[in-house]
Amino acid sequence: MAVTDTAIEGIKQMIVSGEIQPGDRLPKEAELAVRLGLSRNSLREAVRALSLIHVLDVRQGDGTYVTSLSPRLLLETMTFLVDLHRDDSVLEYLEVRRVIEPAATAMAALRMSDDAVSALGRHLERIGEEPSVDELVSNDIEFHRLIAEGSGNAVLCSLMESLAVPTQRARMWRGLTQGDATRRTLAEHHAIYDAVRGRQPDVAAAAATVHIAGVEQWIRTALVPSSTG
């Protein structure tokens, strides 16, 4: 289990056991890091991850609080780690994406209007070079939606959109725990965009394959190692 995951598990156990309740403030960072046997950097990453999924509320100058979610909703939210580590279905969704998205991207390179290609470029520019993880994932989902729409095939577009949601949390977790995830994602998006703009369907398909396969491989090795045996 990754260090960040260990920190999250420790905080989760404090909540599940009732030691800290919704609305309570977490112990001070230094105290909690010592208690969990972790570095303060690892603890900060865990707090950041849990704040993104609304389990914790970080209040500047005041401290970090457990949200006021009901115990049932809180436990349901915490199952995201179980989903990522024990449920291989996310890999199956990515396998399907790896099959169909290169074809859709090749079609987009041939069929997208000039205006749509320009809109795709503006979408990439808006995110900047150092987005937050939630901004990165939101931008990623919209980028792939625009590509799907550009394929000109409504059925394919609908299918690709249906595949985006089941892999969203995995992509969020990759952004939080893989150091170069942001840089790689943005570079791969630009490679896809350049190929679409250049009306190069084969290059666009290859770039899409590299992009999806990279996410899939990282999840195989980092999130669900049991599936690689």
UniProtKB/TrEMBL annotation:
UniProt-listed SUPFAM superfamilies: GntR ligand-binding domain-like, Winged helix' DNA-binding domain
PROSITE patterns: HTH_GNTR
Alphabetical keyword list: DNA-binding, Transcription, Transcription regulation
GO molecular function, one term: DNA binding
CDD domains, A to Z: WHTH_GntR
Ranges where the HTH gntR-type domain occurs: 1-69
Listed name of the protein: FadR family transcriptional regulator
Native organism: Phytoactinopolyspora alkaliphila
